Amino acid sequence: MLKKSLIFLVVIVFSLLNTSFWYNQSEINLAYSKFYSNLEKNIQDLNLVIEKLQKLDKSISSSINNSKSENRIKILNDLKSINKTKINSLKLKKIKNSIELNTIRNNPFIAELIDNWYKNLSLNDDYEYNENNETFRFIFKKYYILNKDNYNYFIKNKLENSYIIRYKGDFLITNDYKIEKKYSYLELYNLFKTKIDYSNPYILINWEYFSYKYNYYLFFKDNIDWLYLWDLEWNNINLDKTLIIKNLDWTYFFSNEYKKVRLVNENIIKGITNKNEFLYNILDDNRNIDNNYDDILLEIKNLTLDLIKDKKTDDEKIFVIYSWVVNNIDYYKNYSDWNKQIFSWILTYKNKIWVCDWYTKLFSYMLSFAWINNVETKRWFAFDSEDFLSFWHAWTRIGDYYYDSTFDDPIWSTSISNLNFIYYKLPYDLIYVNRFDWIEIPEKYKNLSLNSRKQLVLKNMYEIYDKYKNYPLMSKIWKRISLWLKYDDNLTLDILKQKLPFYEVNNNLFYDKDWNKYLIYSLKYYNLNDLALENVFDLWIDLNQTKLFKWTDKNWNIDYRLAYDIKFY
């Protein structure tokens, strides 16, 4: 066995020796650790293990003396140092064991029992011992404390299936015990009858995909990595009846309230290239609806295929799907009532009302049917929204670009003339001027006022304006710059009067600076008395094509109008 272990170590070391650049010392540690673990597992005699390592030390020393390569010598010296450290630690362990054995030998009545009659164990404070690289707990109730007065009794009256236990300095004898193995979470996972692994939580049975959903779960705190079955039993966790859940980060949870759920027929999603992501989304939706929705899935699939039938590139497919979602789904503004239907993409597809998360969900399903890959739903917070930190927002990443179908919905536009998508295919640093993923929010930003947050977003946009000035999202910044405003300047009527053509209109009549007379037949306008001035920058009009009117009607009512599309008699 030593020969096989040495071959393994030599292969690793020589691969490092042949490296023409540098190596990571952790690689040597890892290789040696595997070598020693294999050696210890197959050689139980501590003296023999030390002897083998001493032979390895001599072999390494010989190789160092015969080597001319500085890199080779460095690697071999590192290996020699690690091996020497291990030899010294084993020698200390041998001395400790010898002292413990002498302690027993100095109690001849105990030594005789151990040598001739009984098995023996040495337990730590938690009643544990190690054997063959595994940990066990020795649980006992009735026991006797061994001493010189009663050892003859246990020689003459041997207790069947008994152990002599050394625990906290005492020697105990018992035949009323139970031995339990200590399991890693992965070992426990394999013992459970019902399990779900979130790296692939789907089960295919007779062309139908299934998974599990659960309402409540248990977990063990304090970073416990190893458990006894007794720990499970005490917490009402049963190997046959409890669902064990393995998360992507290798944490484990347990649920006694769960059920197996049907997801979809395999034929419906046959051929899509991101099947696991698609099934995950269906499982997520299943938390809000219990139904067989294959018919609706087929409807969405056929709609998608019809939309993209004459599209040749991925960009063309993405655009036509995005357009359909934005123009056919309405935002459900009263989300505070927690209407369950708005959290199911199936029901909201039927009802054509959604919240942001399900704009992105439907978008992602349709992208899957169009064979668009590398799609991710991003969630968390819009920094300049009133409900920052109260309600999360959702948007979509496709490859290196980002799409926000919610923000492009006309319901949020201040102008009916908005025909452009401004949150379509944005690079990372542009779309993230006004949003944060949860873990990336600086603590100092969490308590800022809405006005302060909006000003900070403007500052971010000013800083990247030159790089992205041709994007429609930057229109508001261009308008501010055209009015000679800094990011922290407030727009006023006086500024508009100075920067825009300004006229006083009375009964649809006004005069220009040359006293030319104009009689207005019709116009489109925004009433600046009713509209916050700052919203001017969100209007989808060109300020170069506008005029500012101080408007007096026939009843002598006065307001200020930002006017465009003006027609004259």
CATH class of the largest domain: Alpha Beta
- With strands numbered from the N-terminus, the spatial order across the biggest sheet is 8-12-13-10-9
The rough form would be described as elongated
Strand proportion, as a percent range, falls in 15-25%
**Gyration radius, in Å:** 38 Å
Total number of distinct structural domains:
5
How many helices? The count is 18
CATH A-level architecture of the largest domain = Roll
Largest sheet: 5 strands, mixed
Q: What is the averaged pLDDT score?
A: 77
Relative helix content: 25-40%
Write down how many β-strands occur, each being a DSSP E stretch of 2 or more residues. 24
Spell out the key features of this protein.
5 domains, 5-stranded mixed sheet, elongated, 569 residues, alpha+beta, 38% helix
Can you walk me through this structure?
The protein is α+β, with helices and mostly antiparallel strands and 569 residues long. The chain has five domains: 2-102; 107-175, no CATH class; 183-267, no CATH class; 271-479, C8orf32 fold; 493-568, no CATH class. The protein contains 18 helices and 24 strands. The strands form six sheets. Strands 8-12-13-10-9 form a five-stranded mixed sheet. The radius of gyration is 38 Å and the shape is elongated.
